Amino acid sequence: MTEPADLLVVGAGPAGMAATATALAGGLRVVLADSGTTAGGQYWRHPPEPARAAIPTGDLHHGLGAYRTLTEALSTGRDRGRLDLRPAHHVWSVTREDDAFTVHAVDRRHAPEESAVTLRAPRLLVATGAYDRQLPFPGWDLPGVLTIGGLQALLKGGGVTAGRRVALGGTGPFLLPVAAGLAARGVEVVVVCEAAHPLAWLRHPGPLLRNPAKWAEGARYGAALARHGVRFRPRTAIVGAEGTDRVTSVRIASLTPGGAPRPGTGRRVDVDAVGVGWGFAPQLDLLTPLGCALTDAADGNAVVTVDDGQRTTVPGLYAAGEVCGVGGAPLALAEGRLAAASVLADGPAPPVPRGRRLAAVRATVARHRAFARAMALAHPLPAAWPAWLTDETVVCRCEEVTAGAVRAACAEDGAHDHRQVKQLTRAGMGWCQGRVCGPAVHCLAATDRAYEPAERLIATPVTLGALADLDARR
Ligand SMILES: Cc1cc2nc3c(=O)[nH]c(=O)nc-3n(C[C@H](O)[C@H](O)[C@H](O)COP(=O)(O)OP(=O)(O)OC[C@H]3O[C@@H](n4cnc5c(N)ncnc54)[C@H](O)[C@@H]3O)c2cc1C
């Protein structure tokens, strides 16, 4: 692209791809940067190009028609010199100066070498998605214990099954596609432990009835699990993992309505891999340092506040997809389209408004958000989950901080949020910067507010070489 960009999009998942395609169709010049090697995000994760033909994953995907349409729109945009697509570019910092955004990224296309890249545009759209939310339990740091998103990423991104006999646990509908995908690849999924009870959905009939495609999808997964003989256990949790060098068994227990293990219900199940997931936490790293207002979502997360056109509270900054609340790919797609329509409407030459089409996208967003809220309420974190922890259970794996140390920081030293616990214990100060332990430490600090991740000025580790490179280009 020879001319300056009108819009910079960070994140090429469903939200970022849809936003880019809409912006291109509206005549904008766009830069689209993503830390992954190919566009698609978590939902449309594929093996790297050279390996795609050898690793068929088509049966694990949904909505591939939409993916192909978006991919074609992006490649037409590139051919016409309107799109600067930047795969393997991890954005580590964003600043706003003089009504424009400066984005610092590291180009990792030739990893392990990396070089610094600086991109600028008057408008920025952040669509960086979410990551697995984890709750610790004794043994969760053993090799072979993964997140369910990690299991899914291995499967979709490399055709790899992490084990031959796998137990899954946590809460939320995402357990189902992961179990079905593993079973379809010949893995013995010995049990799926869902902490909530599916009947909790009946308290939200409106969103259920307005989204028949969702329950049809759920029914398909249910049938797939039945076909493979996978046992689905409601109101049950994986409360421990055991093994010496790696996991060899898990302890599962029935839960009381409050989430405490029911005495006498615990039993051991032999496995060689485990996947656990407690929903997702939005990836807000690039948004919080820019000063965006946040809102509490029903699932215990803080999410970025947007208006009905996906505008954040910072002028020129838009957000779409799971940074605005966890709700699945169809919601992310609709929010991406809506955000790009707002960028076009707010620009110097707004297009003729297409009121009906925009109203339809807004209605789609509202319908999916109502479903997402119902999902969050039907699959809460079990209030009594800290009862699974012993004082020796490691909570922050990077800094090896135990539950006992976190509890002491709260009870004896008066810490009442994860930032204070971090200052007192180093929990959240390591390599992952609290992405893994942050939500758990937040719950242990017994706060009733939504989890707001600590502000990180650098969103990914950057080598000194790349920083020096940046300095040399000034
Ligand atoms: C590990 C994992 C696996 C999942 N698998 C499925 C699944 O199989 N089926 C399903 O229905 N839902 C799945 N989900 C939920 C899924 O994320 C959403 O429904 C959907 O993909 C959300 O779209 P999005 O565009 O908001 O975000 P995403 O699809 O997550 O896309 C965000 C993109 O932003 C990029 N990014 C993030 N930070 C940066 C940065 N600093 N610099 C540059 N790029 C960045 C990421 O590489 C990613 O490509 C998964 C979620 C996770 C976390």
In short:
This protein has 474 residues and is α/β, with parallel strands linked by helices.
Average pLDDT value? 94
Q: Order of strands across the biggest sheet?
A: 3-2-1-7-20
Radius of gyration equals 22 Å
What is the general shape? globular
List the helices and strands and how they pair.
Elements: E1 7-10, H1 14-25, E2 30-33, H2 64-79, E3 83-86, E4 89-97, E5 100-107, E6 115-121, E7 123-126, E8 130-132, E9 145-147, H3 148-158, E10 165-171, H4 175-184, E11 188-194, H5 205-209, H6 212-227, E12 232-234, E13 236-242, E14 249-254, E15 267-270, E16 273-278, E17 280-282, E18 294-296, E19 302-304, E20 317-319, H7 329-346, H8 355-378, E21 394-396, E22 401-402, H9 403-411, H10 418-425, H11 438-444, H12 464-472
Parallel strand pairs: 1-2, 1-7, 2-3, 7-20, 9-16, 10-11, 10-16, 11-12
Antiparallel strand pairs: 4-5, 5-6, 8-17, 13-14, 14-15, 18-19, 21-22
Helix pairs in contact: 1-2, 1-7, 3-4, 4-6, 7-8, 9-10
The structure holds flavin-adenine dinucleotide.
Flavin-adenine dinucleotide binds at residues 10-16, 33-36, 41-43, 90-91, 127-132, 149, 152-153, 177, 280, 283, 286, 321-322, 328-329, 332, 459.
